[in-house]
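Final report, closing paragraph on structural work. Over the funding period we assembled a curated collection of sequence-structure pairs, and we close with a single example.
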Amino acid sequence: MASATRITGDIDAVTRLGGETVVPKAALKDFQKSLRGPLLMPGSDNYEVARRVWNGMIDRHPALIARCSGAVDVMRSVDFARDHDLLVAVRGGGHSISGKSVCEGGLVIDLSAMRGCRVDPETKTARLVGGSLLGDLDHETQAFGLATTSGTVSHTGAAGLTLGGGHGRLCRGFGLTCDNVLAVDIVTADGKLRRASADENSDLYWGVRGGGGNFGVVTSFDYQLHRLGPTVYGGSLMYPLAQARDILRFYAEFSQALPNELAVDVIILSPAGGKSFLILSICYTGDFAEGEKLLAPLRTFLKPMADQVGPVNYNKLQTGADSSTPPGKPYYNKSGLMTELSDDVIDTIVDRMESAPGQADPTVTSNVIIQQLGGAVGEVAADATAYVHRDAKYDFVILSGWDDPTFEKQNIAWLKEAYVEIEPHTIGFYSNHMVDSDEPRVQRAFRSNYDRLVQLKNKYDPDNLFHLNANVKPTV
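Its predicted structure, as stored:
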């Protein structure tokens, strides 16, 4: 075990509004004593590891990292940050592509050591600790033949995914991850631990289901589970990029009439130094024979160059994309939600992927991901939760990752230029994919629910302590 950080003097830090401050030695020592988990500073054992996040493009040096062991450590960290007016970042899984789970010169409230899940198979519910990963949730629930909607990369933090809404393979059948939240424990900006559910702090319960980290630090989630697995019908159909236009045009119509139990996502992959190809990623939770019938039109329209669809372990399906986005690699993305895939947007997507940087730079991997929504997602009213995009049918993401830093500007420029042509076809943003979170974009992320979120922010975080997120600014 690493030794406790030795505090030898005052430290310079960054304030909530970006100014400079000095935190006295005595206050630091008192804070350290109040925590059960370690307090890390530059030079501490494990500090360099603790400040690193999934996106290797992010290189920030917080003044303090409180590695919380439980809700009390979180409460004391929030109090300390508020009392000293410190810049605050909250880290769960550290998977924020924009790097908002770490900050420069402030305090990181780090929940990554707070992992665990308890399943009640009788009530079909699970309680998940706030620093847990999606893989933790799937591992525990699948042991009982249960699941709830989670994302498509198992090393993603469950908290960030859930608070932003929660797209995933099961959302068409079971709703978004946030639709399956029964209650949360949350530490708000006043340092109090609150329970939020339909019966207790119901306004806060509304806000945490899609409103992101604007209202506090969630230390645990209670989820509704559903019968599923351990085997589903799923896998991948693969096609050369030369067939992408035809496949996407067929998919645009085919995907509109699918039952809720079937989700078909699109991935166009330009691998580093290799040939681009298209994947249809499939998950069907109904009868396997019926799944064969439903997918027959896809298989007969154009013969895939690889057909890997069949009965598959659900956890294997959920971890299949993990290696494609490894931690520590630099990433950048743009995204938007769509109600349709028009011929124009299909042509734009394929044109851009035909000129992806990976063909010139052998360290670059570029992806387009079109995740199918609709189904149960659209059966919830737009104002029932903070997540508003119930009319969206697809979540479009264009993502690039690279190894050679000399190509960073070129790769980001290519991606931004591509998105300029695609953005007019979008209706707003899924906050979990947002890199640029200026106020106009945040308003497009929350659309008609934005004003209600402002009022909630005014009540629970009037000083905007929690603003490293898709930030809803208070007006008080």
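The chain is about 30% helix and 25% strand. The chain has three domains: 11-110, 117-228+447-460, 231-433. We thank the funder for supporting this effort.
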